[in-house]
Amino acid sequence: MVVHAMSPSVRLQEMIRVIRGARTQGEERGVIQRECAAIRAQFRQADNGTRSHNLAKLLYVHMLGYPAHFGQMECVRLIASPRYNEKRVGYLGAMMLLDEKQDASLLITNSIKNDLSHSSQYVQSLALCTLGCMGSAEMCRDLAPEIDRLLRASNSYIKKKVSMSVWQLFPSWFGLIAGVLHGAVVLITELCERNPETLEQFRKAVPELVQIMKGLVMSGYSPEHNVAGISDPFLQVRILRLLRILGRNNETASDAVNDLLAQVATNTDSSKTAGSAVLYETVLTVMDIKSESGLRVLAVNILGRFLLNNDRNIRYISMTSLQKIVQTDHNAVQRHRGTIVDCLKDQDASVKRRALELSLALVSAVNIRSLMKELLLFLSSCPPELRAHTTSGIFNAAERYAPSQRWHIDTILHVLTTAGGDVRDETVPNLIQLITTATELHCYTVHKLYRALIADISVQSLVQVACWCIGEYGDLLLRGECEETEPVQVAEDDVLDALETVLQSHMSSPATRGFALTATMKLSTRITHNVDRIRSIVSIYGSCIDVELQQRAVEYNALFKKYDHMRYVIVYEKNGVTLKLQTDRQTDTGMTITLTATNSTDREITSLTLQAAVPKSVQLQMKAPSGDVIPAHGLGQLNIHFLPNQVSLKMRVRVCYTSQDFVCQDTVQIDSFPSPAW
Hints:
Layout: H1 12-20, H2 25-44, H3 51-63, H4 72-79, H5 84-97, H6 103-106, H7 109-116, H8 121-134, H9 137-142, H10 144-151, H11 156-166, H12 174-177, H13 181-194, H14 199-203, H15 206-218, E1 226-227, E2 230-231, H16 233-247, H17 251-267, H18 273-288, H19 293-306, H20 312-325, H21 330-334, H22 337-342, H23 349-362, H24 368-379, H25 384-401, H26 405-419, H27 427-437, H28 442-455, H29 460-479, H30 492-504, H31 510-523, H32 531-540, H33 547-563, E3 568-574, E4 577-587, E5 590-599, E6 606-613, E7 620-622, E8 635-642, E9 651-658, E10 663-670
Antiparallel strand pairs: 1-2, 3-4, 4-5, 5-8, 6-9, 7-8, 9-10
Helix pairs in contact: 1-2, 2-3, 3-5, 4-5, 5-8, 7-8, 8-11, 11-13, 13-16, 15-16, 15-17, 16-17, 16-18, 17-18, 17-19, 18-19, 18-20, 19-20, 20-23, 23-25, 24-25, 25-26, 27-29, 28-29, 29-30, 29-31, 30-31, 31-32, 31-33, 32-33
């Protein structure tokens, strides 16, 4: 048997570096799974001095949202350790991995009781913090004597820890902790959040809180409470949070706080994490109370500076906050659009997602063109898990702010080409509806979609729309004239080849084949020389294994057999005048055909006459034409009735008409008619 030795676990800092450097979630999961396996193995071994080290790494894994429950008993063991560094990690783990409902929490009650009587105030504070975080009412009652003794001691450090730990269970001790500022602020905050009836009472303390806060902001260096050049940032954050609660929906309290918030915002250094924490709490307070407009702009600018911070976490919380206020302070947030768009290039997936959501929220009628370019560029390289959200956001923005129908169509086609596999199901019918309403763009759209179909048939949504468009507007494609785009000469066989490629491709879904088959059938009324080929293509799928496709083919074959005599064959096309022949009906007593003349020019056609001649064996009756004038882009009709005969029907038609500057006279020989007609 071969035993593979597990590689020794890496240091915490190295593990964090590797995890944060992972480019994908799969790579991150792989690193964490390997590390968790190594941690499990070392937990099962005897104490080798690395238990606290391994638990610390497991807690980081837990912070990232991965399972870490197997470390609960290790927390209990470390709490009972006589070593301070192990005890500290054990208590931290208990606060993160345990709660009052778990049985393992009962096992640490005795350890907490012993540590509350410890000679070191730092060990006592560890026990108090854990008690405040996860202590149940039963646990606190068991430890009440120790807590009461600590409250009556002269140590202000311990009194502050007690005040923050057990206020919710022992309100009768408030008088003993009122002298500790930090603890008192925490207590008032919790009381106001849990009991709104106390708000009016504590709003009377707003002026005093403002003075205390100003003293902290403007005070000089104090080694006892200074953190990275910021005077007691923990107390500042607590006071700002309390002022936010007291100023919410209250103009008097808000007015009293406005000047202070401006002072904090302009005098706090954001280059250090402690300063950023104070500024972030300031921003939250500004946005939550009835603050002045200038102050709100200042708060947005602070968040804008956070976007330039090298720390991804700070950038993330900045965009999260901007997302909440973008609707109410749209113009202020809009000023930082460039920085927000740059965050789309961030390596961190969470930052990218927030930047995407914020960028979509910033789209407006003014910036739709420039911002959409950035979003489309992001779509071409965004992670797979963000593509669906990106395409959905782009579609919504384009539908709401599109400057023109052509721009709207181009944008959607670009998205389909780039990420067609990630669009919503309703995209195809929505785009078809858009194309239908854009009458003047039919020629442009069918040319563009035909080129896209020739280039790639793997994107199903794009292929479906292209097939539909070719079926509807194939005559415009074959005409080869398009003012909106460079004209391309496309033959009937080219179009049918493209549709047959879709029908035969293994990449085409049944739904896509249905679109292609229907488009092929529609073309039978829009082309002149390949009707038999279309009939052959359709008949093949009459025995298709796919029931839906088979049913369509059978129905289309029936149309060919029953109504083929109604199809027109073009007999004359010159100078913008087109003459079409169509069999209307056939009975035992005769057959009626209709000659339809259409004018595709911008000029009126006048003096139109049609004369017909047939062999002597056939009797012909011509009815009066609908008129001798065809308006620009209009049509006219002439009905002709033949008596039946067994010989093949042939007819010669003389066409005469006058345009604006010339007279035309032509003769057309018609040697073939729709087969069921004769």
